[in-house]
Design a protein that fits this description.
Blueprint (H helix, E strand, L loop, with lengths): L1 H24 L8 H21 L1
């Protein structure tokens, strides 16, 4: 029960921070910049690697 409470607290505190961060960066972030595309590609590759490793 203690672990569930910690997880709920973590999600409840980090989610609004992530939303505020996205709103703040929406004017600066360029979806089509080479740097953004490389970062998104690397994160997607890591996600696929983890899914393949687990599954």
């Amino acid at each position: 029960m203690k672990i569930k409470a910690i997880m709920v607290f973590f999600i409840a505190t980090t989610m609004p921070f992530g939303i505020a961060l996205r709103i703040g960066l929406s004017n600066v972030y360029n979806d089509n910049s080479p740097t953004a595309l490389i970062v998104v590609g690397l994160l997607n590759a890591c996600s696929v690697g983890l899914l393949n490793h687990i599954g």
